[in-house]
Amino acid sequence: MASLTTRVSVYLVSISVIGLGVAAMVEAELGVAPNDVLNTGISDTFGIGVGTAAWITGVVAMAIAWALGRRPRVATVLGSVIVGFSINGGLALFPSPDALVPRAGLLVLGLLVVWAGITGVVATDVGAGPLELVMLSFMDRGMGIRWVRWGIELTLLLLGLALGGAAGLGTVVFAFGTGPVLAVTLPWAATRLGTHLTQAAAI
User: How far apart are CA 124 and CA 153, in angstroms?
Assistant: First the structure.
């Protein structure tokens, strides 16, 4: 297994870039990840920041994961805080282009960054993000990662749409692409770091 220092370093970089990827997708205005459809819906409904909404949904997801047997670690809680700040910081950093081509570029950038970030966070086994913790709790029960991820994304999407969240092409790509992408990247990254995806670890 990779050293703790290496794993923590990968974790911190990965958790930070997830928020930047989310911000890029929000600014592209072509649809965000299902979780962020929910976050943008909460943001618009209650007049709070998208990053703040992410903190709220993170707490709920951690509670669900804990109930399913995957106890959140300190790093999971810390990661949720970092993501919220990263989203708000990214929204202030990225431009808001009107033309379709730069918006499409931001969408692609956001997707790739978020997928890379999720892979890094989960594979380090330092403390998966709240949604990834829910995903792993179902994987512990023998369910395939593609079906688990699709189920989570669909649930979040429906809740977000009910609140008027920012859904679009990017939402569809993320919802259907994340499971297959992670099915390839997670085992590869876990092997490189010497970690185990389906073993519940103590806090």
Answer: 23
Break the chain into its structural domains and give their ranges: 4-193
Give which of 72, 75, 15 is closest to 202, Cα–Cα: 72
Cα distance between residue 125 and residue 70, in whole Å = 12
What pLDDT digit, counting tens, does each position of 56-107 carry? Answer: 999 999 999 999 999 898 888 988 899 999 999 999 999 899 999 999 999 9
Tell me the C-alpha distance between 95 and 81, whole Å.
24
| Maximum separation of any 2 CA atoms in the chain, in Å | 48
Concatenated DSSP letters for 51-98? HHHHHHHHHHHHHHHHHTT-PPPHHHHHHHHHHHHHHHHHHHHS----
Rg over CA atoms, the chain: 16
